[in-house]
Structure formats: C-alpha cells, structure tokens
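Writing this down once: the sequence line spells out the residues, with the fold written below as integer tokens. This is how one looks:
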Amino acid sequence: MNKLKNLITQFIAAMQKRPGLLAVMAFCSGVASYVMVDRKESFSQVIAIVLLISWLWLIIDNWLREKVEERFGVAVSPNVMRFALQMVQQESLFFALPFFLAVTQWDHPQAIFTSLIVLCAVVSVIDPLYYKKLARNRTLFSVFHNFALFVVLLVTLPILLNLTTSQSLVIALITAVIVTLPSLNNLMPNARWWRFPILVLILCAFSASVWQLRSFVPPAALRLTDITLTHKVDLQHKKPVGSIKTLDLHTLHREGLYSWTAVKAPRGLNEKVFHVWIHNKKEVDRITLNINGGREQGYRAWTHKVNFPSDATGKWQVKVVTESGQLIGLTKFIVTS
C-alpha cells in the first residue's frame, strides 16, 4: 500500500511540475476516445462507465477518504483529491468536446454552448487560471464542476443506456441540479437558514431557464451525415436522385419535394426526429421520422412534402430537430416565381 501511495505521489508531483504535459495527455485522450467510440461501440460503453464512476467517486470523496484511512491507515492528501478532480474534469470535457464539435451548427445559437465547452476545457488545463482564479471562487467553481458533469452525461447516457437525446438532456439537467444541492451550504457557510431555500429556488429557476434554451444544446449523440432535397428517391437503394437548391413555383406544386436525410446515432438507439419546413422564417410544417442507430453512414430516411402554400416563393429551410427541439442539421433552398 505504501508503494502504491508513493507511486501516486510521485506521479502527481511530476504532473504538477509539468502541467503542460497533463493538458496534452487530456487532449490526446479526448480525441482518442472520440475516434475509438466512433468506431467501436463496446469501447464507448467502457469509457462511459469509467467516466460516470469517476464522477460518483468525486461525489462521495469525503466519505471515501475516511473509509480508506479507517481501513488501510492511509491518509489521502487533499492535494491528491484536488488533482484527481481537475483530471476528471479535464477528461470529461475533452472526451465530450469532439462530439459537440462534430455536430454543432456554427451559424446557430448552439455555437455558444460548444464555445463554452471549449473555454472550460482550456481553463481546466491552465493551472494559474484553474487554481488561482476558478478554484478560489466557490460559486464559479461549483458552476464549472457541474457544467462538466452535465456535458459528459449528455454524451455518455445515449451511448451507455440508449436513452434518446431528449431523455438524456432531462436526466443530465436533473442530475446536475441534485449534485449541486449539497454544495449550496458551502457557498454561504455562515448564512441564515432561510437563505438555503432561496438558493434552491434560484437554482430551480436557473434550471428552468436552461430547459427553455435547450435548442442551444447540440445533440451530441446524433450527427447528420447527409441531407438532400430532391424530386425523386431511389427506393431500392434508398438514396436521393439529384439535388435541388433552387426551383420554380410551378415545379414545386406539381412534383413536391423529398427531404432525404442520413442521421448517425449509437447502436441500439431509437430516436424520434422531425423535418421542420420553414418558409421566410415561419414554420409551416413538421413531419415525424423514427430513426434507428448503428449504421456507419447514418440511418437513411425521408419525407415527401406536397402541400405547399399557394404563394411559396422565397427562402426555405428544412431543419432536422429532436423531440426537445435540438437542431441536428438543416438545408436551404429558394423558390422562384
């Protein structure tokens, strides 16, 4: 046990002397995890389990340290736990980041959410920022910690439990709120009793605001690999015939339009998505699609719209969204007179 303790202590000391090396390791680990998850389903489940166990370990940190000291007579230094906390946060953020980078629409408000993940990942690997600015501010550090947990749950829950994107978003948000509750007393250690309920209400109001802005959160487990507008679909090979970006009003009313999409999702995941047709920034139709995960090129499905307004000229969009309104991808076309 002493030998193991010495090895851990030496590793932490080496990493503290070379913080840049830890940052490189975290980034490489995140990219490698994304590549392996993208190629091998079973590996993704192992990664998800390891990350969730590490977060559970951090939640029961104090209790666990007491039990280790009681059972083995080894006192775990708070420095070890702080280092472990930083490492888990780094791994979680860098593990999740490639998933969000791959699905984010950068001309959509969801770019704000992904940019926030990038910012947090950068802060987590710059020790002067992390320890001297972030860690010393209890409120800010609590928000940072639970945001990292929220982000990693959005990625791991669909992979591990085959939950839909909407279900994962709800569970991740509730979990982040529950984990935050024990830390509220630490934020105001000498506050009167009535301030705790007020903090809980503020936390609930904040969570409700996040839910209202859920369209800003990219669906990390889903990726649109292709979207095409066409007049015809090859049913035998399940692929579009041609591609349309501009068409005239007469042709639109005579033939209608197929919206053909391929959405990649984890194996075993059954997800309901929608094709939302928007004319001059106004939604005019919403058509349901059910997709199944596991296909490398994405699950191929399409909708055929023939009911267009009499005056359909102008700019159109077809958005692919989840049940909770998260944008997977979109395409645009123009109808001329």
